[in-house]
Amino acid sequence: MPTSNAWWPHGTALDKTMNAAGHHQSLRHAEAPSDLGELLVVCLCAEWCGVCREYREGFQQIARQFPAACFHWLDIEEHADDLGDLDVDNFPTLVIKRRDCVLFYGTMLPTPSHLRRTLEAFLEQTPEESLEYAFSSVERRCWQEDEDLLRLGADELSRICTPE
User: Fold this and answer.
1) pLDDT confidence of 8, banded at 50, 70, 90?
2) How many CB atoms lie within 10 A of CB 53?
């Protein structure tokens, strides 16, 4: 796991603040709603998929509940050339990132409450905890090195699809 703040994008100091005693403390979601702006949620779907079509309204409802986060609906058939070698075996497949750190990549039950609870859990993490979580297993470490997952950032998604 990286030990330097240099890995964390945008040259931040990992969102630290001073408490009344002058000690640094990490901001949690309840203290820093701006952390929402660090979240990127992408649903990899297909228009032909009935489950995807049914899930989209719930996905949009969750997007409205987290207005500062970036939500994108990406049709894998329409944007196959933009996805590189990303493998989507089941629907819905979600990518959840905090800054440039992939926290989740995989299928999720098409129940909006699952996504909401997952996002709430990630928002409870400090940036340091998210970084630790992202490197806590072999699978998650591989996500951090996957060029196709890393390319799915806000700028690239804005270019190829519209936000939800």
Assistant:
1) very low
2) 13
Question: Comparing 8-12, 36-40, 42-46, 65-69, which segment has the lowest mean pLDDT?
Answer: 8-12
3-class secondary structure, 107: strand
Cβ proximity of 121 and 113 under 8 Å:
no
C-alpha to C-alpha distance for 163 and 116, rounded to whole angstroms: 18
C-alpha–C-alpha distance, residues 114 and 1, integer Å: 28
Note every long-range contact of 49-58, with CB atoms under 8 Å and residues 24 or more positions apart, other chains counting. 49/91, 51/91, 51/92, 51/110, 52/91, 52/92, 52/110, 54/110, 55/91, 55/92, 55/110, 55/112, 58/110, 58/111, 58/112, 58/115
Higher pLDDT, 134 or 67: 134
Write down the residue that tokens 């931040």 correspond to.
12
Q: How far apart are CA 162 and CA 164, in angstroms?
A: 7
Instruction: Indicate the average pLDDT of the chain.
Output: 81
pTM (whole model) above 0.85: no
